[in-house]
Batch of 3 targets.
Target 1
Amino acid sequence: MNPCKVLALQDVTWKCNWKCKHCYFRRFDKSWDSGDTPLEVLKKEIDSGKARGCDEVALCGKGEPTLHSQVNQIIEYATKVGMKSLIITNGSVGIETYQKLYDLGLGYLQISMHGLGKTLDKIAEREGAGQRQMKLLEWLNKENHPFRINITLQQLNYQELIDIVEKAVQLGAFHVSLLNFLPHYQWNLYLKEVAVNPVELVDMLEESMEYMEGKVIFTLRYFPMCLLRPNFWKYVTNAQFVLFDPWEWDYGQYSKDIEKVWESAVGLSETVRIKGEPCDPCLLKDHCGGWNKVYAQAFNFEGLKTIKEVPNELEEAVIQRGGLFDLNPANNEKGGKNAIQHIR
Ligand code: SF4
């Protein structure tokens, strides 16, 4: 495993045309008025990411990055300084905007495909959101533009997960991120308004992962490994490996010194994980990192169990740091990002 080299612009703009049920920033009322971050500030962030060794820039939030009044110039600048680029987007701002961004050197879009049709309308609290996003996805497919997708798992979509995943694969997404909903910011008080008991997610997750195996590379972010069958453990990336996840960003921590990044990663995990039973004595603790303590408490630790033995074929991986993580084709040199030829 290698440290993630993606720099995130986490404050591109606060403007957004959706109001997602699971949005981490939903309750930050005042900040929604603050609008765009000035282009010069974003350029400096790109410069400092490049200086520390990042080679890709992700336009993330807090709102919808393509609504920044100078989004073209941000992508133009990233291209000019030799950084690859991606934009996490709801896909609703119109095809001309996206075409222009690809023309300016955008590497790919990451579409927040939380549902199909009316399900997406409900999650985004916008009539027609699903239809509009599908129009973009079909266009991306027709034009052969590279894109990947993320799905935030939640009460409104988890029973349709397999349909969303199948559609994404049919349309040509090159990577799928399944994101379980974590209690960041004020969400620890409201987690159960959105999150699903992990025990109830297992069947849909395993069915979806089974479907994707061999068809597309994918990652399951934030899930207790012990709830899954052993052949699915390798797809899980929890807090302890997030700084090594090529499909996430570096949180300002990228360094060529792997030990330094590992220390930060463990520190990150320590702040959120369960302490004591069932995680501390678990054979998977150094891979799973331990499940999120707030999430675990909200659902009374249901289903969690200390893993005391692993199948023979995983024994070697389990004794190596990152051994399971490296088994996921999405994370390794051969099958992961470097294998996606058409990313610029
Ligand atoms: S017991 Fe804890 S460390 Fe072990 S797999 Fe379950 S959540 Fe992860």
Note: Residues 224-226, 278-279, 282, 284-285, 288, 290-291, 304, 306-307 surround iron/sulfur cluster (CB under 6 Å).
Target 2
Amino acid sequence: MESAQQIEHWIRNRQSTFVNGLKRGGQVPDELIEKLLDNASWAPSHGLVQAWEFKVFTREGLLSFYKGLQRIYKETVPAEKFNETRYQKFPEKADFVSHVIAIIMRRDPKRRFPRQEDLVSVAAATQNIYLSLQAYGLAGYLSTGDICYQSQTREFLGLDEEDECIGFFTIGVEDENYVRPPRTRIPAFEKTEWIRS
Ligand SMILES: Cc1cc2nc3c(=O)[nH]c(=O)nc-3n(C[C@H](O)[C@H](O)[C@H](O)COP(=O)(O)O)c2cc1C
């Protein structure tokens, strides 16, 4: 395959697989997660600030993660929006998920560039994880939700004031019976203005 076809293949086949598409009990070797994180670390960053940081939850750690999120959900969701089923489901996810990578933007201690640039570089690192999934035969997706931005979550992850939780990359093994909904995109030309003179 030509390089151009290869890159198109990997970019356009990058995809999210949500928890309902993961196989119960699917375990991913830690070594593959390490490879994903090494790939993430090859993202660009202004001045090579490399503002990403990862916390990996797996095995018993996964249960602590979901119990932590469950507690934060209960503490933060307005009473009228509280959903008992959703609440109960948090720890059940651990049956389908192999690893959760909390992706953190740790603000450059030297504040060399605007905070936004640190955020952008960590987004690029996140895309590298997304792009790597298929190559290693893994499935997963990035999740955020309101919970990502709660002060309790920040505390749970040990974030300082200018740090940010980018999201939780949930990884497992795809369920072979999962029927994937079609994926589409708005064509780039609809979002592009060319200025030629
Ligand atoms: C910043 C960000 C936050 C996301 N948060 C969620 C989320 O909270 N829940 C969810 O189901 N998917 C989340 N996603 C994944 C999107 O749903 C997914 O990328 C989108 O549906 C497109 O599907 P694709 O990744 O297969 O192209 C998030 C993606 C990004 C980039």
Note: The chain has a mean pLDDT of 97.
Target 3
Amino acid sequence: MILQRTYARFREHIMKRGLLVVLAAAVLLSAFGCRSFILKTVMTTVEPYFHGPGIDGTQFEQLTDKVYTFRWNWYRNLIIVTDVGLVVIDPMNAEMATALKKELDQTFPGEKVHTLIYSHYHLDHTRGGAALSPIEVIAHEKCPTYWKEFEHHDVLDPTRLIAGDATLTIGGVEIRALYLGLSHTDTLYAFHLPSERLVFTADLGLVKSVAPVGVPDRYAPGYLAALNRVAALDFDTFVPSHFGYGTKQDLIDWRDMMEDGRRLAREAIRKTGLFGTHDNHHQMATYFDTVYFPMREKYGSWHGFNEMFILNLVRDIEGEALGH
Ligand SMILES: [Zn+2]
């Protein structure tokens, strides 16, 4: 028992220092351009988050009477069966959309994709829609403004732009598109299907998995407000755009985790000040101690906790320090 405890403490110490060393090494070496070392360090640290059993490959499943979901590696989208044809939310990319089309042709022979909806403008959610040949393509009105600044030839143009909350009734199915303001971009929608008691969100919530890379392009206060808005809806099934699906409680747990991350980051800054103002090594260790142990206690068993901890910590500290 004592041996076990000593070993656990030793491991903890190594892990803590180890993560700090990896981070410091990555920063230092990037300055000297040791690309292959950095790539290897980052990949071995982060790779298990994105790959593994139950993550790699594809899976097409029915969730409710009218709703199906398709998983392509760590991406997941939503398919809704209506009287006028199928509705797909997010094609993601050409490879995923092509694989989905094959599944749709098998499961619903002769059935067309009537409407493709983009959850937000991000290019990893909006490429490759042509493979689905939809009649209508719906997106937030600001999406084209962002696309034109990037290479986007494989993003199928919207046929209809929307703003604010919108109730899309397609082939007898009510799809409530909830506009989430500045949260994860300012083009983000969550989708509530009251008849199926189901919610689909893109890059907003996961099931027992920690956030990837601090959630890129996130305005933390707006993001939490968005989570709270979705958590207040009446539904049972929660389908996020990555990894597994779950229940409303999973979304609530995830909201709590994001809230805890911010609160602890704020506490860490209160304790030791903003980075670069005092002894950096001591500050880094204080940031780590203040956030790591309480977070590990609650979320240590979640997918990706070790792989993503430092990246989430840096994002939370930076966000609280700068105000974003
Ligand atoms: Zn996104």
Note: Residues 120, 122, 125, 184, 203 surround zinc ion (CB under 6 Å).
